[in-house]
Design brief:
single chain; 244 residues; mainly alpha
Amino acid sequence: MSSSVFSAIFFSFVGGLIPSLLWGMVVLTQDQHSEKKRNLVWVFGIGAAVAVPVILAVRSLDWGIDTLGVALSEQWYLFITGALIEEVLKGGALYLFVFRRDYFDEPIDTFIYGAAIALGFAAVENIIFVGGEFILSTPTIQVIGLLMFRTVTAVIVHLVSTAFIAYGLYIGVYARSWLPGVLSVILGIGVHGAYNLLLSATHEASLFINTYTIIMLGAGVLMYRRVSYLQHHSHHKTHLDETD
């Protein structure tokens, strides 16, 4: 393996991981009772592994579209592949590998481990994007610019969207509040879908920045309220079905 190929692989992995690790440090400040590092690494790895079924699901969808001759607009395709499939599979991973585990022992863990899954998936996505740019021989300064852009856009979108999914699943499972839970899941998918559509349809930087800022400020306020709600219940170290 040549030194240039090795460097490209190395910087793809490092560059892909750094944004997720930085946002992970921010997320952990919201946890009153620190989680064990091995549990966080395990769930982060699960989030990264979700990329595999996502790719398989997208390939299956592509096959179905080609085989059946389905006419699907670019907007609907982006929504289904980039928002619906990703968020449903991340939510499924959270339910299967976190909710039923002993380390999931307080409400705020919903946000902490939901973020770990989201950031693990975002890391793989970033590694693929950065690696693709190196394959295309994109100048390093442009690759760094792309990575910085994704750090303050795509990674945050994954974090916020999956937080809504996680909250919706949590209150549905533990508080039996199915309608608010479903609405929260829809909101998570909607935020992710709106970002993908905005990214593909907007060609003016100022329009993208302004619209993205408005969407994420609104979503951020809603997410903050939900995180505060989970923190409030976590003071008693009990899940909602044990307190309500």
